Amino acid sequence: MTSRKIEIMVGFFIAAAIASFFMLAMSVSNMSSYAGGEQYVIKARFDNVGGLKVRSPVSAGGVTIGRVTDIQYNSKTYEAIVSMAIDAQYDKFPLDTAASILTSGLLGEQFVGFEPGAEEDFLKGGDTIDLTQSALVLEQVIGQFLYSKADDEE
Amino acid sequence: MVLFSGLLNKFQYLGAVTLHSFQRLGRGSLFLLEVLMGSANLFTRPMLLVKQLYAVGVQTLIIIIVAGLFVGMVMALQSYYALVDFGAEDSVGVMVALSLLRELGPVITALLFAGRAGSALTAEIGLMKATEQLSGMEMMAVNPMKRVIAPRFIAGFISMPLLATIFSAVGVMGAYLVAVEMLGLDSGSFWSQPQNTVDLYLDIYNGVIKSLVFGFVATWIAVFEGYDCIPTSEGLGQATTRTVVHSSLAILFLDFVLTALMFAK
């Protein structure tokens, strides 16, 4: 076989591999959600973040508007501080927006849900949300239920 | 006394086997070092590398594509039957994509690669040695490390991740054919669930890293066995067998180690 044919075949091979990689990256993985221009960071303080992880989604009205970028524990206030990167196009959240940690489905992944408030001013990058609701820890709920059940029967 | 010397013989055997293995390991490492140093030569003669990319990569492509397609289709069928009982058949896409990207893509590609390309490399280099072509080159002041071994080694190292990526992509398409076209699942949830779950860094890049490691080890074993074989027809056959067996075992073992390192929480 001539070297031209060999070079063409090798070229096809490498092009096919690059195309496969892009196909996997774009249509199978979450890369499309990385590619999102401008973002601003908002923090929120929670008593308990439950199973929330870095890269968990942040959603408002069921639409993903950003992702959790960092979770830290403040040992002075005994609270967890969650940093979230929100897409810049969603910059009209009132100052008294409430953040709560919700679960998709009964046993699904946990995410941060935003509930917009009524203030006139909007949250800016670096602001902290104070109105928060912690994660629902299933074991605690079951425990409380069992205790109240036991009280009823006495 | 007879008993004592019998015992000594056993110890001698054990010692000989151990020393022999270490000797081979040492020779293999020195060989690898020499190959890597000879690889710089390829920048001035890229045609050597292109020819080997054709022999090692392009000619392995067919078996990789066919295997990937069928593995993807079977995965889709099996996970559909398992998940439909729980009403979770929409997760077929994410299950197939994750298993292909994390495990099956790199591992099956590497095993097929060792069988198809690795054995061919060993046989080719071994026959060159047996027919004294390598010595002939040395006589002509051509370094066979630079001219014969290095292009084959680098070609294998480059080809493996490319083949594994193609395997995974074709597998996902095969799963799409079965899950959406044949079993009638919703094509929207087939794609959207992986997009929510599969992580570019954690899953795709780690799969590529795995296939790079497998390619390195499998090609190293293949070219070393060929270069180190006993130059007889019997020795050549044994070397080819050893290539396939050793590289398959090395791939499976390394896969466990890499998985434990990468996906440990």
Outline the structure in words.
The complex is a heterodimer of chains A (154) and B (265). Chain A is an alpha/beta fold. Chain A is built from 3 helices and 8 strands; from the N terminus they run H-H-E-E-E-E-E-E-E-E-H. Chain A has an 8-stranded mixed sheet, with no helix packed on it. In chain A, strand 2 and strand 3 form a beta hairpin. Chain A is elongated and about 90 Å long. By secondary structure, chain B is an all-alpha fold. Chain B has 8 helices and no strands. In chain B, helix 3 packs antiparallel against helix 5 and helix 7 runs antiparallel to helix 8. The longest helix of chain B is centred in the middle third of the chain and has 39 residues. At the A-B interface, helix 1 and helix 2 of A face helix 2, helix 5, helix 6 and helix 7 of B.
Concise account of the structure shown:
The complex is a heterodimer of chains A (154) and B (265). Chain A has 154 residues and is an alpha/beta fold.
Task: Detail the topology: elements first, then pairings.
The complex is a heterodimer of chains A (154) and B (265).
Chain A lengths: L2 H26 L2 H4 L4 E8 L10 E4 L2 E12 L4 E9 L10 E6 L6 E6 L12 E2 L2 E2 L4 H16 L1
Chain B lengths: L1 H37 L7 H38 L8 H39 L2 H7 L4 H39 L4 H11 L2 H29 L4 H30 L3
Strand content of chain B: under 5%
- Could you estimate the helical fraction of the residues of chain A in percent? 25-40%
> Describe the biggest sheet of chain B?
none
Question: Could you state the order of secondary-structure elements of chain A as H and E?
Answer: HHEEEEEEEEH
Q: Helical residue percent of chain B?
A: over 70%
Low-confidence stretches of chain A: none
